[in-house]
Structures
1.
Amino acid sequence: MEDRTQQEQASPTVQKRVRDSFDRQGLMAHLGARLTHIGPGRVHIVLPARPEMTQQHGYVHAGATSAIADSAGGYAALTLFDEDSEVLTVEYKINLLAPAAGDHLEAVGTVLKPGRTLTVCQLEVYGVHADGTRKLVANGQQTLIRVNRTAQ
């Protein structure tokens, strides 16, 4: 049975807040990453595999892999914060488990422990091939801090 949190959608207000914030991220736009799921405490980000994203062996670079993982976790936490709060990464650790190969990468950030100040997330990145096969290529853990929202 599929985990219910993989299908559950955040409220339209939360989805808009997350999308608006994501759209302000120059790095995600530069990489060509896009949000594909926004649920309570869970966010998915897809990154197409393109030559500009590769390292010397043709795999997606660890920097791009970890960037989408970091953002997925941050936005997963943001889905649980009130509208006057923002999120910043305090630290994260990522294990690169296999070469990041596939048609695209999918980063999944999941809140493990929400808190008033600090939130801990699980990070997973999958290499997804055109035929739909998926392989876990990276996983990690992240600590985030809730900060007061600043004027935009």
Note: Helices lie at 12-23, 26-31, 62-78.
2.
Amino acid sequence: MPLDHMNVLSLVDDEFEDLELWYPVYRLREEGVNVVFAGPEKGKKHIGKYGVPAVADLSYDEARSADFDGLLVPGGWAPDKIRRYPKVLQLVREMDEAGKPIGQICHAGWVLISAKILEGRKVTSTPGIRDDMENAGAEWLDEPVVVDGNLISARRPPDLPPYGKAFVDALKSGQRQ
């Protein structure tokens, strides 16, 4: 079933991991999903770690969780910047409370940690933030993709194919009829 009536918000800031941002975005767009980028400032171009740009369609402050069916948080060094915005943490909590799919890969777990939504949840991430995830109350698993309710997490770029599939499957299972 096509997902062309769905909207997903992807957070962006400087030094995102290029593949971890763009692979899921293109995978969703292949399914017809409208993916919108939100960053600190609307219209600002953000450059990934390897030079690929992404332009914010909205500022974090303009983004409303009610307008989106899911959320993607890329890895790289951007999550350490993204998690410093109270509005982002509010968006993450609202989407989690609504049971909307939240995808995070690699260092993106930092954003979920700062939003304080990991207590008692199963997740994965880059092994480099395993301790951070566990200290936030999560059970960390060394698996390519971990799905726990609405949370879809992956370790790093080699895990992108199953991560993309799991996120699409989560959107499909939550489609409004």
Note: The longest strand covers residues 34-39.
3.
Amino acid sequence: MAYRRTPAVQARLDAQAGAIVHAAARVLSERGFSGLSMAAVAAEAGVATGTVYKNFSGKTELVTAVFRDVVTREVAAVAAAGAEGTSVERVTAAVETFAGRALKNPKLAYVLLAEPVDAAVDTERLRFRRAFAETFQSAVAEGVANGQLPPQDPRVSAAALVGAIGEVLVGPLADGLHGEAVVPELVTFALRALGLHE
């Protein structure tokens, strides 16, 4: 008869994997992708390196799990910020939240947006960009529908906004600068790019 894990054992294993993912996120926040090692994550998590390998086959699988965990949280924050109000208020809140949160943890945000990573992790980065674009798309579509914004393809405009915001943030993030002054400029740019002129 094959061994079946009890719910309690599975819960303990899931909690251990979650703790390792959170430890890896902390290492990424301090050292970036290039500075992350399984040994560093093990030390941060307070477990043996073998325990990390028992949960994740290697650095790529672990960082992919971190991407999924962090991005899920970040997308939820941006979506919540841009969920209510007029189209302009929604886009403004989403841009402020996206950029503001990135600037609060520049090293991790740089890993998520631009640091050279393995191809498998880069695939997660593309999902991350698409998920953020979806948070802008409904606000743009609403603005077009009610005449607040000129006719445009909301999907294309949303993707372009995410790309532009990411590109603008790369400099401050790479340099570890707290460039909060860039956030109002990004909001102004985003609204102008969507066709709203003061």
Note: Residues 137 and 154 are 5 Å apart (CA to CA).
4.
Amino acid sequence: MPPAAVPPDPRTARTRSKLRRALLEECTLHPLAEVSVATLVRRAGVGRATFYLHYADLDALAVDACADVVRDAVDALHAWRGVPDPDAPPPALRDFFDQLAPHTALYRELLSPGGGGPLGLVLHQDLRARSHSERTLVGAPEPDLIASAVAATFAGVLADWLHGLIQATPAEIAQRVWRLLIALHRTPLP
């Protein structure tokens, strides 16, 4: 019998939450490159050693802080059941694009055009895994191929939109992304 999983320490969760919140607050005032660990730990009310106990550097914290956007994106893309209507993206997808505004500059630093960068990697991995799992569950063809295409398409379009390479309001980009993803899922494969 395998050993029981050790529940996460609530103190660790609280400390990480304080650090993530402090980083997001600081990044509304300054670009990530101008944020110092000293300023951040002061804002979070934790010690410098505590910071390094949890994160290797500010980039690692920033990716962790922005990982919620990844989870929101994955959930938003899968917030529908039944036959998708190309003219009606899930409200969660529209909400996702709307909520990016306060931290757009930070997301741009972590998500490079085309969908690369540390946040792009996390987004691609999480979205691909979720898409693959759902396609496999329903017996849809080519789960590996379509899951990769969905993840790459969404990460790339999101990044390019954040960097201003695609001009659209949040509602417009949600609609366009939704249609692209439906088309990918419906593409007939041999």
Note: The CA atoms of residues 5 and 12 lie 16 Å apart.
